[in-house]
From TrEMBL:
Organism: Candidatus Woykebacteria bacterium RBG_19FT_COMBO_43_10
One GO BP annotation of this record: ribose phosphate metabolic process
Cofactor(s) the record lists: Mg(2+)
Molecular-function GO term, any one: hydrolase activity
PROSITE patterns the record matches: NUDIX
Domain of life: Bacteria
Name of this protein: Nudix hydrolase domain-containing protein
PANTHER family in alphabetical order: NUDIX HYDROLASE DOMAIN-CONTAINING PROTEIN (PTHR11839:SF18), UDP/ADP-SUGAR PYROPHOSPHATASE (PTHR11839)
Amino acid sequence: MPNKRAAYASEHLSQLLDGIPDGGRILSENLPYGAVVGWPEVRSDGNPGLQTRFVIWPGAMAIALDEVTHEVYVVYQTREVPGTEIVTVELPGGGIDPDDTPFETASKELLEETGVVATDRSEWIQLLDEGGCRPIDGLVWTSQHAFLLINGRKIQEPADGETTTVATLPLSKLIDIDNQNGFKDPLSPYFLRRAQDWLKENRPDLLT
């Protein structure tokens, strides 16, 4: 799949370059995960400059509530950072493969990373419109998606090769973690708040 994803990403980048000003080009790439694109500009002082954007592969996340406790399934993941490693708390999710929909990715990643499935398809809630969200267009071009599962059931351990620790935490605790700058990515807390808003309006009995 990585080779197929890389080919798809390369085609996507070529199409993207058609939509930016003349002179746009790929400055650096690490396909299929991302690339840096740039195009010339004239700055306000009249000097030449270069606009750049980092293009990230589109992805999908799952906010899954346990069917009994209603707490949110999270994974603790060891990540490399310059000079060391850190343990992060994350929502299940991943990059969308060329043949998958955002929903298929969210449900597949949830099963692989946590062993959790929906008790019924109707228990899934799409939190964003079909195009997903583009959280920081001024710096990064990407389309990210989020789905809320209001009744998740753990049926197995994480898939072989997953090096995560699975836990459940109250949604309010996860919001507190974000308020203390405990998340290492901007998307998880954003999606958690979207889920919280939906629950407040539609299923306040599931708030934890």
